[in-house]
Amino acid sequence: xxxxxxxxxxxxxxxxxxxxxxxxxxxxxxxxxxxxxxxxxxxxxxxxxxxxxxxxxxxxxxxxxxxxxxxxxxxxxxxxxxxxxxxxxxxxxxxxxxxxxxxxxxxxxxxxxxxxxxxxxxxxxxxxxxxxxxxxxxxxxxxxxxxxxxxxxxxxxxxxxxxxxxxxxxxxxxxxxxxxxxxxxxxxxxxxxxxxxxxxxxxxxxxxxx
Length: 210
Known about the structure:
By secondary structure, the protein is of the alpha/beta class. The protein folds into two domains: 2-176, Aconitase, domain 4 (Alpha-Beta Barrel); 178-210.
């Protein structure tokens, strides 16, 4: 169960370059990108790899800079969030900032896959349900509770259901990657290999263990 405050980003078709501008994507490290999340919208002055982001001027009109939302961990967005390139840095920046879930009516396909791989729950709700959450958030600071095992998001007395695949739930609840998800089935893999070798013993001669 995750409980967190919602940041309402009421924009459609937010692409991965808006989430994480390309000038910062020169590293394969998964951390350190939180300060440049939504960089072009978040700051009044441009930034680059040499910038001290603590000294840049935040745009007071951008929702992420609202003092009451500074520690928010749930992002609420419009249709087609994370469209554009397959830039995994976009999800790394969200995670590094502190987000643990993104709620939207739809996502870019690769972005949605990258979310689960990096510990950010990609939650799809119907358009009218997302609009209801926007209304609640705009009426005041909104806290929600998200249960990825049950597939529920609760906002006060209101409850919304969402779907995740079994693999997405495994990735999110265990905070592991594809390799870890595969190793979770090591007993089944071992049983399959033993059964296959019993049926095809000649494979042991062709592919001896090294």
